[in-house]
Amino acid sequence: MSNPLLEDTTLPPFQSIKVEHIVPAIESLIQENKDFVAQKLSEESTPTWENFIQPMDEVSNKLNKAFSPVGHMNSVVNSPELREAYEKCLPMLSELSTEMGQNKELYEAYVKLKDSAEYKIYSQAQKQAIDNNLRDFKLSGIALPEDKQKKFGELKKKLSELSSKFSNNVLDATMAWSKNILDKDELKGIPESSLESAREAAKEKELEGYYFTLDYPSFFPILTYCENRELRKEVYTAFCTRASDQGPSAGKFDNSKIMEELLELKLELAKLLDFNNYSELSIATKMASSTDEVLGFLNDLAEKSFPQAKAEYDELVAFAKEELGLDSFEAWDGGFVAEKLRQHKFDISQEELRPYFSADKVVNGMFNIVNKLFGIIVKQISDFDSWHKDVRFYKIFKDGQHIASFYLDLFARAHKRGGAWMDDCRPRMTYKGSQQLPVAYLVCNFTGPVGDKPALLTHNEVTTLFHEFGHGIHHMLTEVNVLAVSGINGVAWDAVELPSQFLENWCWQKESLDMIAEHFETGETIPDELISRLLAAKNFNSATAMMRQLQFALFDFRLHTEYGTSSYKGIQELLDEVRELTSVAQTPEFNRFQHGFSHIFAGGYSAGYYSYKWAEVLSADAFSKFEETGIFNCQTGEEFLEHILRKGGSSEAAELFKAFRGRAPKVDALLRHCGINA
Description:
The chain has 678 residues and is of the alpha+beta class. It has 26 helices and nine strands. 56% of the residues lie in helices and 8% in strands. The longest helix has 34 residues, at 291-324. The protein starts with 18 loop residues before the first helix and ends in a 5-residue tail after the last helix.
């Protein structure tokens, strides 16, 4: 039987991939990689780019092309069988990565290349790739004695397995909770569009009434609009206790021990490499130069934002008491009261905006915006292989040439991981003598079409879509053909959010809103008066939002800095301490936010969550140049394309930013955009 994952296809053959194909294909390709590297090392006494790095990149690319759809499908069409096969592959891939990173002959070949006369005539991208590899060899324990190298490999493998287990527990806990409500009176205040979705969900389950889950589009309207306080409390409790020792599934999917194990293993890994803590190891590949610089950056922003956040909270509490009759103000009241106050102050709600943001209009308008900014044309392709009927496929053209492609999976459904993300399907590189074009996965979890109505987005969801597409164009508009630094590869983690946050700015400009907003029934553009109210409300509770992100970032960074020291008292204790410094509201004792904090326990953000704020400074400052020259200024757009998007990871992020902005980044634009008077 042929195995489609072993066929070197341009795009993944999703419909042909069966669970039984996965493990044999990955085992075979891992062995092929090992054999190929061994063969190259025995053949080449004088390694060059052409005889050494390029062929190794190609065999590595073949493995990535096979595993990419597997990892992707595990996230978007999860099943127990698929998950089992996926998880069997993780330790094998981790082992390969460790083995390559600790291969002294391979390391010496890179050292030879770096020291060769030929290195001097390499392109900037080639030099950066070699330099990054040498750095990563050191971070993979190349200098360690054999017994410690073995230990390093074991730690990496265990970390990979535990991270996956953490993620699975969050997904299982999310799917374990649901609520079927028959009486519509219990749902008073929830918008009709959300009720329709809940009705459709009930029908799919062959139930009467309304069906709610812990998927964001399902539970968020309850916390934001539902007048039933007890229901808000029930949903809040279920969501913030997922995968913990508390709440409706207490102990069933508990991540408590896994978190401690992950921290222990990461500290051990860092100390093996002579770092004092995991935070030091984390920033070794980032823009930030020291742990003190990161903590100083976060504490400075917190100090500047806290007074305004306190004033915002006091206003909420007063409004809740005087206008809504709430003598006590609880965590499950926050979103509800904030939405009431927003409507009271600005006479605007996300639901009022929803009819103007049909998914198709927003998507096509977004394509027009990037066309005006960067001169690219996006065309939808109807005939393609996919993992689900809702998925769309597009090709990107520049100057008449096809330069990239992407899949767009917009809507929430069962067995699909929550949140939104962009992932690499195919990187741009020279492959077997020809050009391999970049391909991306763009995934969101919006409410899909209901009945005769098209999918209608909130303005928050519109900014989410722009954010992910910003990541997408960073991956797809690169002109770098060197695998290690092509697109988002090799980009410092605290700079990788720059293009994504940057593109969000076009969700807040009248000129661009006119391109994405149109009433789905009347075809009218969004009224100027409604835009004015939207913009007036833009910075509503912005300091509160700032402090929330800073709380997550400080908790993450301090956790990975202080774990294992005498000052560390425990995960919950540290989070409580950080909340004392950053939170203006009391958090319920049963809240176990950390148990579902997949970014740092199952994603790539360990001691790196600060990157969101760090990159926000970069993105706000980058956009301020468009504010100075015009938001659709072609020359400024071309400069951003040239210095940021096309260059990928081929130069240091700080240098690329300076090349675009003409100077180092400043924090002023971020505070101004957030309406924070520091």
